[in-house]
Amino acid sequence: MNAVSLTVCALLGLAVAACSSTTPATSKDSAEAATAPAPTEEMPESAAAPGEVSYEGTLHYKELPATKSVEAYMGVDLTLDRGDDQAPLPLTGSDVWPHDRLVALDGKRVSLACVMKEATPPRPDEQYPTDMDGKPLQRPAKCAVLRVVEQ
């Protein structure tokens, strides 16, 4: 990181760690990318990530509207219908299972393993719908998919 980018980060009040994303990739980064697990169709029990949970159900994709709406703000286009009067589980892609691969499974019954990811608050420069107190509506937490087995 050069002195100019460090000064800009300090002036903006950003953490240095957040600004370090502009630094060039190192050989350590390349090594980590090379050891990332490849997407698989299997769900080995021994490779469970911390906080990993498993679900079964029907995966549904619903294209988000291109308008500024509550539905678009919430960003829930992938869900897992688990049946039995349970609320649909919002899903999101991951490095292992990207969004487009999940969309391809629309309408299919699947078993999947995922890790819950907390919702991100809106950015200060972002427009958002509000609740009765004028606070931004809270986006739902989503489950980042790690493994999928089509049934």
Helices and strands in order:
Layout: H1 3-12, H2 16-19, H3 27-34, E1 52-61, H4 70-74, E2 78-81, E3 89-92, H5 99-103, E4 109-117, E5 142-150
Parallel strand pairs: 3-5
Antiparallel strand pairs: 1-2, 1-4, 2-3, 4-5
Could you explain how this protein is built, in words?
With 151 residues, the chain is α+β, with helices and mostly antiparallel strands. The protein has two domains: 35 residues, no CATH class; 109 residues, Beta Barrel (OB fold (Dihydrolipoamide Acetyltransferase, E2P)). It has five helices and five strands, in the order H-H-H-E-H-E-E-H-E-E. A five-stranded mixed beta barrel has the order 1-2-3-5-4. Strand 2 and strand 3 form a beta hairpin. The longest helix has 10 residues. The N and C termini lie far apart (49 Å).
N- and C-termini, Cα separation = 49 Å
Total domains: 2
| Tally of DSSP helical segments | 5
Helix share bin: 10-25%
Strand content: 15-25%
Radius of gyration: 19 Å
Look at the helices and sheets and give the structural class. alpha+beta
Indicate the mean pLDDT.
77
Write down the secondary-structure element order. Answer: HHHEHEEHEE
CATH architecture of the largest domain: Beta Barrel
Arrangement of strands in the largest sheet: 1-2-3-5-4
Shape: globular
CATH topology tier name of the largest domain: OB fold (Dihydrolipoamide Acetyltransferase, E2P)
- CATH top level class name of the largest domain: Mainly Beta
Low-confidence stretches: 1-44
**What is the strand tally?**
5
